[in-house]
Design a protein that fits this description.
Layout: E1 5-7, E2 10-13, E3 18-23, H1 26-29, E4 33-39, E5 46-51, E6 57-59, E7 67-72, E8 77-82, E9 91-99, E10 102-105, E11 109-114
Parallel strand pairs: 2-11
Antiparallel strand pairs: 1-3, 3-8, 4-5, 4-9, 5-6, 7-8, 9-10, 9-11
Length: 115
């Protein structure tokens, strides 16, 4: 069974920073594109950032220049460094692993940004 174990959410003031982490097995990490999605109340889940095994990255427009996704192959962990946080970044953040037709999700971690 594939597990994606997330950590790092919490409450922060606007302008602050948080770092999310997501650990999984080596077999998954060596093959899958890893990403972070978020879902705010009443909204659809959206892609925030994604990183391929070749470390090619993509970002949602509103987080460009503020968020950085990275992966540590030795630890089979993907990170999302979030700086200059805004209240509109408040959401549940989900780790995702995808490869061909396979798609796995973490349990989600709450990020709340107060104004």
């Amino acid at each position: 069974q594939v597990q994606l174990v997330e950590a790092g959410g919490g409450l922060v003031q606007a302008g602050g920073s948080l770092r999310l982490s997501c650990a999984t097995s080596r077999s998954i990490f060596s093959l899958y594109t890893m990403g972070w999605y978020r879902q705010a109340p009443g909204k659809q889940r959206e892609l925030v950032a994604q990183i391929t095994i070749r470390e090619r990255t993509t970002y949602e427009d509103s987080v460009k220049g503020r968020f950085t996704i990275s992966r540590d192959n030795a630890k089979s962990t993907v990170y999302l460094q979030m700086n200059s946080l805004k209240p509109e970044d408040t959401a549940v953040y989900y780790c995702n692993a995808e490869w061909r037709d396979a798609n796995y999700w973490g349990q989600g971690t709450q990020v709340t940004v107060s104004s």
